[in-house]
Amino acid sequence: MSLINPKTPKHREETTVSAAEVERYLRQHPDFFENQLDLLKILKIPHPCGEAVSLVTRQISLLRDSNRQLESQLNDILQIARDNDALHQRIHQLTLTLLDATTLEDALGGLTWSLHEYFQADFVTIKIIQPAIESPIAGLCVTPSDAELALFASTLDSGSPYCGKPDHSQAKYLFGGSASNVLSHALIPLQHAGFKGLLAIGSRDGNRFRAGMGLHFLGQLGEVVAARFASLLAGRT
């Protein structure tokens, strides 16, 4: 009887797969683990804190962080939307007040009241440059040649609102005895159909009107005020 030696199994060549190849494969097949649930049970990845957590746990953690960030962004967007809606409502109320006015003096009083009531303005000043009119309101009208208008030349020439901290000369000219209390102000040029003027809103809060802040609302406000004043002056005898 002969002894038959068992066949020696053939050795398979070992194939080395790099981490980059594994990563590339998983990126190309993100659903790979859907059919490898048992593998998910044992798969571990290092945690930044040094602990080992399952891939599923880590993914859930990342998703929760992402959801929290998205929720925070959504809340910010909603708050901005609510603020804008409230702002438009206040502009609407101010516009109605101006439309109700039948004289320039009534419109000036309504504007000042509305800015205090709806926008919490601390100080309000209006200067009419053109046309030349007579008014019982002291200091309301100035001539285009008024030397102190040079303090606001850049704003008047640009036609765009300006926000920031007033220098002493500007505050003194606009707000008189209250100048020292004005820590920030908004300058709004008024121009419409031959009417030209300047609306100044002062605040005791140095951060209320900041350089670089959005000026869209102030531009709209200036357009509404200038249009209504021009309309009232056009029918003035």
Automatic annotation (TrEMBL):
InterPro entries: DUF484, GAF-like_dom_sf. Pfam families: DUF484 (PF04340). PANTHER family: DUF484 DOMAIN-CONTAINING PROTEIN. This is Phytochrome sensor protein. It comes from Methylocaldum szegediense.
